[in-house]
């Protein structure tokens, strides 16, 4: 089955984005204790697709042991890159991506598989901030031109159609 992998810093709204995508409230747990999701969750949808919920990162209070565990998990998942149909990196639309975001983005880039960036919490931006912030995300992550940055609000539903469209485009006509 196609696997769509979601990654993002703790609290960036990864669970909310997944829930919005599926139009379900509690598919992925929102507001889970940051840094506590130390395993990879798989959601199988209608026998057609796997959503892969990679554990959140970038939580300052996580111990070195936990960080190493996270890195090991992510590394082993990415080692079998053929598993991934499409990668989705979720970042915060309000801020310059962090060093951890860049590392994650580079993991995705390194797979050679298609990936997209979701700029979440768009509803918290002023209109005039949207374009510059999206440009800053693209620039900081050094994204190749073919990688889309999708303005998104899990809260309002902005960007849902675009992300869904992208996912369907990569599913090779299995829907
Ligand atoms: P996760 O740790 O990345 O899975 O993040 P969660 O989905 O648990 O969300 C973290 C917090 O951000 C919660 O309080 C959400 O309600 C909030 N949140 C998520 N997405 C949005 C959004 O698009 N807009 C706003 N304003 N808040 C959001």
Question: What topology does this entry show?
Answer:
Blueprint: E1 3-8, H1 14-22, E2 41-45, E3 49-53, H2 64-79, E4 86-92, H3 99-111, E5 115-120, H4 127-140, E6 149-151, H5 160-169
The structure holds guanosine-5'-diphosphate.
Structure description:
The structure is a single chain. The chain is of the alpha/beta class and 175 residues long. The protein has a single domain (3-169), classed as P-loop containing nucleotide triphosphate hydrolases (Rossmann fold). Helices cover 35% and strands 18% of the residues. It is built from five helices and six strands. The chain has helices at residues 14-22, 64-79, 99-111, 127-140, 160-169; strands at residues 3-8, 41-45, 49-53, 86-92, 115-120, 149-151. A six-stranded mixed β-sheet has the order 2-3-1-4-5-6, with helices on both faces. Strand 2 (41-45) and strand 3 form a beta hairpin. The longest helix has 16 residues, at 64-79. The radius of gyration is 15 Å and the shape is globular. The model has no long low-confidence stretch (mean pLDDT 87). Residues 8, 10-16, 30-31, 56, 120-121, 123-124, 153-155 line the site of guanosine-5'-diphosphate (GDP).
Give a brief description:
The protein has 175 residues and is of the alpha/beta class. Helix content is 35%, strand content 18%. It is globular and about 40 Å long.
